[in-house]
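R.M. (postdoc): so does anyone remember the format we settled on? I'll just put the structure tokens first.
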């Protein structure tokens, strides 16, 4: 992941339930199975022939309605034409179905261990990334809940050129069907933007204006055919356009971790500056200009700097709780094998968060008294936080093939964990990135002293 290069992997889906239930005897999507078992689910469906703003037009329908429409559609080749990427007849593509959250008791697949270090979805299993009290509705709980998706589309359905949400990593597994990928490395991403670096090309097979997009012809694309039962890893910042060459069902995750946190922050900084520039002329008459910038950032990006900071603070606390437990109980846990790789990972996690916090401490939203505070002690007592810690431990177990949860569960579950002493000795709350930097310093110093005394 550190190299940030795409790769195709095989042999990781053989035991997936989805590969048997979702595929018929002819190797095609088992549409009747989806209709029978999941037909009432409400999903977002893209009309691949209709552009709306910078994406394909979306409509909501049930899975059964989507499948009925799919069975009526004529086959289209790539959904392409010379008319701005549109076709005469719609080709529908079910996208971003939050299947895992909706069907908790149906285990369609298991996340491969090499991509399970997923901070984003691990966190979202306990908390929401952003909640606007003025616009929050309970019915949005699933639609905003995670970044684990199922995609389904007929031959000819496609996804326009884009880079993934939060500039996250993504992996996509073909349960059945075949996809064609066109990928562009981050070093060439400027070539698919207009001369003002504002608008991105929608469809690379359109007749692209050389005047509007002067760099497009210089782009060097990486092309890839993804077969059934193959998984493709798409790194951060790689723009890509994807076409279904056959009727296809895929499982897709977006996620970030210690290796690509910097990509997330860089995107937020760019989006924040654009949002701020757009409304700069009302600064003098706005009672809370910075608050408006943060609301616009959350609307455009999916979270604002406060959301990202709270995520970093909670995740730091979870890492420090688990690190403290494992470091102090290393002798008792030794019987299961060395836990040093897990401890090293937790230290690396904290160090990577600290580097991001150092970059954030100069942000305008954290200057002065913003009335913002995260109570670490209260966070530590919250059952949601215990769930986050358990999930972090299970992730470490999967990555390093060590079983340590039984040794950690009692400490994590209690509110008087020894880690709370570290929290209280430092401070009861963090209200700025600088506070978080100091807190992580305290935790890592404490960890070093424990190691030295052993």
């Amino acid at each position: 992941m550190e190299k940030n290069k795409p790769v195709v992997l095989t042999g990781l889906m053989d035991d997936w339930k989805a590969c048997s239930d979702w595929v018929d005897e002819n190797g095609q999507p088992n549409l009747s199975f989806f209709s029978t078992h999941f037909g009432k689910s409400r999903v977002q469906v893209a009309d691949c022939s209709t552009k709306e703003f910078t994406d394909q037009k979306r409509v909501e329908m049930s899975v059964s309605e989507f499948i009925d429409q799919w069975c009526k559609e004529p086959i289209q080749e790539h959904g392409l034409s010379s008319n701005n990427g549109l076709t005469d007849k719609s080709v529908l593509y079910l996208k971003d179905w939050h299947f895992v959250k909706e069907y908790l008791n149906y285990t369609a697949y298991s996340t491969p261990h090499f991509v399970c270090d997923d901070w984003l979805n691990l966190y979202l299993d306990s908390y929401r990334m952003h909640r606007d009290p003025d616009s929050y509705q309970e019915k949005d709980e699933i639609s905003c809940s995670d970044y684990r998706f199922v995609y389904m589309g007929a031959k000819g359905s496609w996804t326009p050129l884009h880079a993934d949400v939060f500039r996250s990593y993504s992996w996509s597994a073909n349960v059945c069907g075949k996809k064609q990928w066109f990928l562009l490395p981050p070093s060439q991403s400027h070539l698919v933007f207009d001369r003002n670096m504002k608008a991105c090309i929608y469809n690379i097979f359109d007749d692209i204006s050389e005047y509007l997009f002067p760099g497009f012809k210089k782009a060097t694309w990486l092309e890839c055919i993804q077969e059934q039962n193959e998984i493709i890893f798409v790194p951060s910042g790689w723009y890509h356009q994807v076409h279904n060459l056959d009727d296809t069902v895929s499982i897709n995750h977006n996620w970030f971790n210690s290796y690509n946190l910097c990509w997330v922050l860089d995107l937020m900084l760019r989006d924040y500056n654009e949002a701020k520039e757009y409304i700069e002329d009302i600064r003098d008459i706005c009672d809370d200009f910075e608050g408006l910038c943060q609301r616009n950032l959350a609307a455009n990006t999916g979270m604002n700097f406060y959301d990202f900071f709270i995520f970093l603070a909670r995740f730091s606390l979870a890492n420090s709780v688990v690190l403290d437990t494992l470091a102090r109980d290393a002798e008792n846990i030794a019987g299961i094998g060395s836990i040093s790789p897990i401890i090293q990972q937790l230290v690396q996690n904290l160090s990577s968060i600290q580097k991001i916090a150092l970059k954030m401490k100069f942000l305008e939203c954290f200057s002065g008294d913003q009335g913002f505070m995260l109570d670490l002690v209260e966070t530590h007592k919250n059952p949601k936080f215990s769930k986050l810690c358990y999930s972090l431990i299970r992730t470490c177990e999967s990555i390093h093939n060590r079983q340590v949860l039984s040794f950690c569960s009692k400490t994590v579950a209690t509110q008087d964990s020894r880690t709370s002493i570290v929290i209280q000795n430092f401070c009861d709350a963090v209200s700025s990135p600088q506070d978080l930097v100091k807190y992580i310093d305290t935790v890592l110093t404490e960890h070093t002293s424990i190691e030295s005394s052993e």
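R.M.: ...and that's the designed sequence above, right after the tokens. Also worth knowing: Residues 260 and 441 are 21 Å apart (CA to CA). The radius of gyration is 23 Å.
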